[in-house]
């Protein structure tokens, strides 16, 4: 299975690259926008494609997705303002979905925010615009595509070492999770076809990641 990872040089993406570099059944094409990032992936024998998801067309993204079996969307504006948030987290995500259909890629894994529902949209806080963007991107994926989707809602992201153990489910109490364990969760999702059509929150826990994903 070959994966186009959109947002590949983000911290979750870097952990994913480390996990996948010697994986027996999964390989990666890393979508990045900065040529300075190429060396990181070359060291791991991972193919790269240079593209800015915010400004690229659906056709350009579809061309990048040619020959892959799945797309992971983990790109984010990273707090760079309202315009950038909607260009990347919403429009960029929708363009990636439309590109997947155009490139005949059926599998699509979305890395969303911890909780993106109507209740969250009403909350006045610094993440409201980001939550709105994620809410509508998730809605588009569920209801306006026929892709084989999975939506992953990580808790508060940390740079702590991965534990390999998580709690998955819906309406979990908010909690932290290391970016390393999010990356391992994405690998487990790709390895398990039963995650198609599933949506779940994931935080630190006591269950091995593969076992937790298998319980969905």
Task: Tell me what you see in this structure.
The model has no long low-confidence stretch (mean pLDDT 93). β1, α1 and β2 form a beta-alpha-beta unit. It contains eight helices and eleven strands. The chain has 216 residues and is an alpha/beta fold. It is globular, with a radius of gyration of 16 Å. Helices cover 38% and strands 24% of the residues. The two termini are 22 Å apart. The protein has a nine-stranded mixed sheet with strand order 3-2-1-4-5-6-10-8-11, sandwiched between helices. The chain has a two-stranded parallel sheet with strand order 7-9. It has one domain (2-214): Rossmann fold.
Tell me briefly what this model is.
The protein has 216 residues and is an alpha/beta fold. The chain is 38% helix and 24% strand. It has a 9-stranded mixed β-sheet, with helices on both faces. Strands 7-9 form a two-stranded parallel sheet.
Properties at a glance:
two-stranded parallel sheet, 216 residues, alpha/beta, Rossmann fold
């Amino acid at each position: 299975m070959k994966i186009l990872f959109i947002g590949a040089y983000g911290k979750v993406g870097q952990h994913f690259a480390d996990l996948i570099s010697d994986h027996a059944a999964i390989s990666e094409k890393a979508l990045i926008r900065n040529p300075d990032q190429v060396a990181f992936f070359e060291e791991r024998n991972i193919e790269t494609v240079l593209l800015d998801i915010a400004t690229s067309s659906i056709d350009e993204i579809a061309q990048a997705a040619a020959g892959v079996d799945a797309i992971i969307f983990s790109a984010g504006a990273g707090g760079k303002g309202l315009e950038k948030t909607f260009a990347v987290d919403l429009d960029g995500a929708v363009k990636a979905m439309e590109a997947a259909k155009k490139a005949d890629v059926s599998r699509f894994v979305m890395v969303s925010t911890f909780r993106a529902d109507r209740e969250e949209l009403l909350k006045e806080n610094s993440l409201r615009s980001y939550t709105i963007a994620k809410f509508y991107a998730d809605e588009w994926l569920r209801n306006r595509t026929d892709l084989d989707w999975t939506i992953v809602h990580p808790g508060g992201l940390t740079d702590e070492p991965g534990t390999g153990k998580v709690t998955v489910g819906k309406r979990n109490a908010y909690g932290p999770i290391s970016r390393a364990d999010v990356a391992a969760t994405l690998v487990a999702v790709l390895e398990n076809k039963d995650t198609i059509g599933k949506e779940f929150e994931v935080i630190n826990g006591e269950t091995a990641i593969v076992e937790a994903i298998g319980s969905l």
